[in-house]
Amino acid sequence: MATRPKENPYGKFNQVNLKPEEFNRFIAAQGIYVRHEKTAICPCVYDREKGHTNIVCNLCDNGRIHFDSRELWIMFYQKKLEELFKLQGVWEVGDVMITFPGKYEDGEIIRVDFFDRITLLDFSERTSDLVKRESVGDIDYLRYEATDIEYVRDASTIYVKDVDYQLDNTNIKWISANRPSASTIYTIAYHYKPVYRIINFFHEQRYYYDSYKDTVKNPTYMPIQAQARRDYIIDDRKGYS
After folding, report:
1. Number of domains composing the chain
2. What is the pLDDT of residue 240?
3. Which pLDDT does position 241 carry in this prediction?
4. Are 107 and 149 part of one and the same domain?
5. What pLDDT was estimated at residue 87?
6. What distance separates the 2 farthest-apart alpha carbons in the chain?
7. Within-domain flag for 115
8. pLDDT, block means (10 residues), the chain with 241 residues
9. How far apart are the first and last CA of the chain?
10. C-alpha–C-alpha distance, residues 124 and 126, integer Å
11. Which residues, other chains included, contact 95 with Cβ-Cβ below 8 Å and sequence gap of 6+?
12. 7 found inside a domain
């Protein structure tokens, strides 16, 4: 029969102080500012097992509805590129690590789930996409929030910034008669606010009681660590115009 020491082998136990508030302050001091949007399954997903969605649904983004948009500070750092080709036949790219504080600035508990959308608000990167010209109006809507437009052309014409088009909020607005015809597909290169989606958790459901020696125990939520991936790697591009 196994015997156990009668005394704590690590020494006398007094108290270990876990201080989520201090860690939250550290995240805000060293982190970056983002928008966190929760997701829910759209009613248009009629076969959840196969993931079929209604491609003409104007309510969702590839089967996911976004709601409860909140801004906050997070820790955001690149995940080392790992060679998974020999194991899974793919290269794992576009992944980052994110640490969320336990609560928002107003004290509300932060609840994160798979495929929640994270948008970096103070940084931009470059991408290109195909856009279908709207049949009415001057604005074509882009997949991501544009911060600048570099290049626009269709099969026959290169369009000039601030002459033929301009950036309108986060989309492209045509300002002259020189524009693609309705339903014409054109290419656009632009700067955008990077978007990631939560795909995995390393530290979740981390619960803690504040003042655990007192009669009243105050439940506290610890910071959450998650793995996120570039939105365009996860989601197929569909008609965003």
Report:
1. 2
2. 41
3. 39
4. no
5. 47
6. 90
7. yes
8. 68 65 86 94 68 62 87 82 47 76 87 93 93 92 94 96 96 96 95 94 66 63 86 61 39
9. 72
10. 7
11. 78, 79, 199, 227, 228, 229, 230
12. no
Q: Work out whether the CA dihedral 95, 191, 151, 142 comes out positive or negative.
A: positive
Q: Is 239 domain-assigned?
A: no
The CB density around residue 13, as the number of other CB atoms within 10 Å, is 7
Pairing, β 32-41 against β 207-210: unpaired
pTM of the model: 0.77
Amino acid (one-letter) located at 166: Q
What is the C-alpha R_g of the chain?
24
Task: Take residue 51 and report the two structure tokens written for it.
Answer: 């993931």
Q: Look up the domain containing 173 and give its range.
A: 125-192
Give residue 239's pLDDT.
Answer: 39
- Burial string for 133-169 (b: 16+ CB within 10 Å, else e) reads beeeeeebebbbbbeebeebebeeeebeeeebbebee
